[in-house]
Amino acid sequence: MIDFLAASIRIATPLVFAALGGILSERAGVFAVGLEGMMLMGAFGAVIGAWASASDLLGLAMALAGGAAMGLAVAIVTVRYRADNMVTGLTVNILAAGLTTYLLHVLAGSSAIQVDPLGPWPIPGLSAIPVLGPLLFAHPPLTYLALLGCAGLSFLLYRTQTGLKLRAAGENPEAVFVAGSSPMRLRFTAIICGGAIAGLGGAVLSLQQVGTFTDGMTGGRGYLALASLIVGRWNPWGAAAACLVFGAAEAFELRLQTYGVPVSSYVVQMVPYLIALAVLAGLGRSTKLPAAIGKPL
């Protein structure tokens, strides 16, 4: 059970990063449909950077840059040119899928690149605690960073003036303008920063979990993250809890395949997405979107 729960946390980590990035964007008033593409560019940038420089830190920097670049594209098209949020997000996802495949073959000349994945960083003393130690204090570094990200974003949104302005940009942009700030600048910044954070989610997949990049390796996780932030009511800790549920579903799926349960693996792989659909259907009527989300300035 401890191994199962620890695996659930590790699997949920990329979803948490993407959900945090999506919360920034949607709190500012722009739908985060492009999370899948931002994660994919982050996953690609992380492996290319680590492979070319033999430095994990540069890989993470490239992941941030790749996600931010996709965020910038979304910001320009949706905020500056007032395009439809949904269409733009889906277009970015398709663009990222094609661009990463092309760049992988151009830069590496192969269909996959192998790097050494980030290993666990047990916290001295705490990792030796029975039960809680291996469950909470023996994870790879980006898992700890995801938890810090939840705390940091919660503080930013609910305890700072910047967070108040950001939330106002998604609820009442006119009030932000009257207060002397630019809602357009706030949305630009939120989308780009959100893209960078989602890019870290992609880095978790490629640089921490598997040590390689393959075509379309995000596999719909950006959409699961989008569902998580809706289920979590745009609250970082609520979204993280939803991500943990989806992580547990995927961990359970992997164990079913290991135990040789006579069910098609394709059917088992649908479980997290079926859970997402069921939860969204159940919460659909009670979910309250930010009032100005998707509305051009």
Topology diagram in text:
Blueprint: H1 2-27, H2 35-53, H3 56-80, H4 85-108, E1 113-114, H5 132-136, H6 141-159, H7 161-171, H8 173-178, H9 183-210, E2 212-213, H10 221-231, H11 236-258, H12 265-269, H13 271-283
Antiparallel strand pairs: 1-2
Helix pairs in contact: 1-2, 1-6, 1-9, 1-10, 1-11, 2-3, 2-4, 2-9, 2-10, 3-4, 3-9, 6-7, 7-9, 10-11, 10-13, 11-13
Keywords: Cell membrane, Membrane, Transmembrane, Transmembrane helix
GO molecular function: transmembrane transporter activity
Membrane topology: Multi-pass membrane protein
Account of the 3D structure:
This protein is mainly alpha-helical. The protein has a single domain, classed as ABC transporter involved in vitamin B12 uptake, BtuC (Orthogonal Bundle). Helices cover 72% and strands 1% of the residues. It is built from 13 helices and two strands. A two-stranded antiparallel sheet has the order 1-2. Helix 2 (35-53) runs antiparallel to helix 3 and helix 3 (56-80) runs antiparallel to helix 9. It is globular. The model has no long low-confidence stretch (mean pLDDT 91).
